[in-house]
Amino acid sequence: MKARNCCNTMQAELTAWKANVYDIVRKMEELPGGERERFLPNIEDFHMINSEMDELIEYNRDNC
User: Fold this and answer.
1) What is the helix (H) or strand (E) element at residue 48, kind and residue range?
2) Cα gap 5→1, rounded to integer Å
3) Is residue 57 within 8 Å of residue 49, measured between CB atoms?
4) At what angle are helices 2-29 and 33-63 packed, to 10 degrees?
5) CB count in 10 Å sphere of residue 4
């Protein structure tokens, strides 16, 4: 049962981090034009991080 608790905790942590990254992206996307343009490369990086986190969460769910 301890392994299952570890898996559930890891999934919860990954989900929480994903939510934090999503909130950051949303705030960046709401910036006015000039400021938003400055962060565009970062926004794409954060989208990639969220995709990777989706994969990790799914992998954990399927294999842990």
Assistant:
1) helix 33-63
2) 6
3) no
4) 160
5) 9
Which amino acid, one-letter code, is at 54? D
Question: Which tokens sit at 10?
Answer: 């890891």
Do the beta carbons of residue 29 and residue 43 sit within 8 Å? yes
Residue type, 55: E
pLDDT digits (tens, 9 = 90+) for 4-53: 788 889 899 999 999 999 998 899 888 888 888 888 888 889 989 999 99
Rounded-to-integer distance, Cα 43 and Cα 31, Å: 12
Neighbouring C-alpha atoms within 13 Å toward the C-beta of 3 = 4
Q: What is the DSSP letter of 54?
A: H
Phi, psi of 19 (to 5 degrees): -60, -40
